[in-house]
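A reminder from the course coordinator: this example appears on the midterm review sheet, so study it carefully.

Given structure:
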């Protein structure tokens, strides 16, 4: 089973940027697609972005297209989410996931 640890969250003003990281331990990281989800207060968890194994393809929620970029470094077993032009509605706890494994989440707060 893959273990995941997110980092990089924080407090930022609207229009700012953050880069989230997700460090994975375990074998065969590069064999799997991996994704970012988020959960805002009082809302259900929603998919943000995903990337295929060996960066074979990416997908984004409409709400983040053009602002967020997902990438992975298989040599470092790490997933990234570059978030630009942040909006207050991006405020949430962000999670990475591979298969049935989830990280503990990292909180992002965007002030208006």
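Designed residues:
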């Amino acid at each position: 089973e893959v273990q995941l640890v997110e980092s990089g969250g924080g407090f930022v003003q609207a229009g700012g940027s953050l880069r989230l990281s997700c460090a994975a331990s375990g074998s065969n990281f590069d064999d799997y697609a991996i994704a970012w989800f988020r959960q805002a207060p009082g809302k259900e968890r929603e998919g943000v972005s995903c990337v295929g194994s060996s960066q074979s393809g990416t997908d984004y929620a409409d709400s983040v297209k053009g602002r967020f970029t997902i990438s992975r470094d298989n040599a470092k077993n790490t997933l990234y989410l570059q978030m630009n032009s942040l909006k207050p509605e991006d405020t949430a706890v962000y999670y990475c996931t591979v298969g049935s494994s989830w990280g503990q989440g990292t909180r992002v707060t965007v002030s208006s």
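The radius of gyration is 13 Å. The chain has no helices and eleven strands.
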